């Protein structure tokens, strides 16, 4: 793994303390230098995407999780802007529908997985079930799981089983060709406050703000603990978590692009080579066209 992205990796099996991660880290780069590098990587990602589609053996699943105002939407739009939209699919998961509540918590996420040759981007993901649901265990009751009709029944064993379900789900899809990249945009509480105020002060951004955001901000400590536990339990070799410093949006976008390029490159993708008989037919067709 390239050194510049090793620092973001949540090492499988190790404890995670988000206080140990500097949310303002910028890689000792200037903003303009970082932006230039991002543009260069985007060009290379575009070419890599083409080989991903042509090889038709793998799919890429990128998960974004973060606190409100951490920059998920803008990161997705900037980093993915150089890709062919026909080869991408973006899902933003909200509160489950009544139909989704009639199935297990992974059902709607399995349905949204990218096909071979495509890139899937999940803005929030199945991790909401061990993040917001852990801070608000009453939400679990809507799933109508046998034995869990009361919040007091939602114990440590319940969460251990849920982490295990997630690990098994990710192991299964990884074994079947899906490359999983999990991004946690680690924004500081002070930076979130600044971005909230910006949304309130700018009429053009008012729509981005919800009073519910302030309610959840009041439970910051609980969310950080939920993120730490989720990352510890589910960062694996097959499906690693990356903790990205998000106070400087330009650097977060650069770091994400570096991680994507690294995972693409590992696949060593190449364009398919025609079988001898097919190559011969192609040569004959070419000759016929030239004589037309």
Percent strand equals 5-15%
CATH architecture assignment name? 3-Layer(aba) Sandwich
Determine the structural class based on helices, strands and strand pairing.
Answer: alpha/beta
Order of helices and strands: HEHEHEHHEHHEHHHEHH
Low-pLDDT residue intervals, each spanning 5 or more residues? none
Spatially, the strands of the biggest sheet line up as: 1-6-5-2-4-3
Please report the distance between the alpha carbons of the first and last residues: 52 Å
CATH class value: Alpha Beta
Number of strands: 6
Q: How many domains would you count in the coordinates? A: 1
Number of separate helices: 12
* Rg from alpha-carbon coordinates: 21 Å
Biggest sheet descriptor: 6 strands, mixed
The best one-word shape is globular
CATH superfamily: P-loop containing nucleotide triphosphate hydrolases
Mean pLDDT: 94
Domain Polyphosphate kinase-2-related: 30-265
Protein name: Polyphosphate:nucleotide phosphotransferase, PPK2 family
Keywords: Coiled coil, Kinase, Transferase
InterPro entries: P-loop_NTPase, Polyphosphate_phosphotransfera, PPK2-rel_1, PPK2-related
Question: Could you characterize what this model shows?
Answer:
There is one protein chain. The protein is of the alpha/beta class and 292 residues long. It has a single domain, classed as Rossmann fold (3-Layer(aba) Sandwich), CATH 3.40.50.300. It is built from 12 helices and 6 strands. It has helices spanning 3-6, 31-55, 72-79, 98-101, 107-111, 132-135, 156-175, 189-201, 211-217, 220-234, 249-266, 276-291, and strands spanning 9-10, 59-66, 88-92, 119-123, 178-186, 241-245. The chain has a 6-stranded mixed β-sheet, with helices on both faces. The protein is globular, with a radius of gyration of 21 Å.
């Amino acid at each position: 793994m390239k050194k510049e992205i090793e620092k973001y990796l949540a090492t499988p099996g190790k404890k995670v303390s988000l206080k140990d991660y500097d949310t303002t880290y910028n890689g000792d780069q200037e903003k303009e230098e970082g932006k230039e590098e991002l543009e260069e990587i985007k060009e290379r990602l575009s070419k890599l995407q083409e080989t991903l589609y042509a090889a038709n053996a793998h799919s890429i699943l990128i998960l974004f999780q973060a606190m409100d105002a951490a920059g998920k939407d803008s990161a997705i739009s900037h980093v993915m802007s150089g890709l062919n939209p026909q080869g991408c699919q973006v899902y933003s998961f909200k509160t489950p529908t009544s139909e989704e509540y009639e199935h297990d918590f992974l059902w709607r996420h399995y349905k949204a997985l990218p096909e071979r040759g495509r890139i899937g981007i999940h803005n929030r993901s199945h991790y909401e079930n061990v993040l917001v649901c852990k801070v608000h265990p009453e939400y679990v009751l809507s799933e109508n799981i046998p034995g869990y009709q009361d919040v007091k029944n939602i114990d440590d064993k319940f969460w251990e089983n849920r982490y295990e379900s997630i690990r098994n789900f990710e192991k299964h899809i990884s074994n079947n060709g899906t490359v999983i990249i999990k991004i946690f945009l680690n924004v500081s509480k002070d930076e979130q406050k600044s971005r909230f105020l910006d949304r309130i002060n700018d009429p053009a951004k008012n729509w981005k703000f919800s009073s519910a955001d302030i309610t959840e901000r009041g439970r910051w400590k609980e969310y950080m603990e939920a993120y730490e536990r989720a990352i510890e339990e589910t960062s694996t070799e097959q499906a690693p978590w990356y903790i990205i410093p998000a106070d400087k949006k330009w650097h977060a976008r650069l770091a994400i692009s570096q991680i994507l390029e690294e995972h693409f490159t590992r696949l060593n993708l190449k364009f398919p080579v025609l079988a001898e008989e097919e190559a011969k037919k192609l040569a004959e067709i070419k000759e016929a066209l030239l004589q037309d």
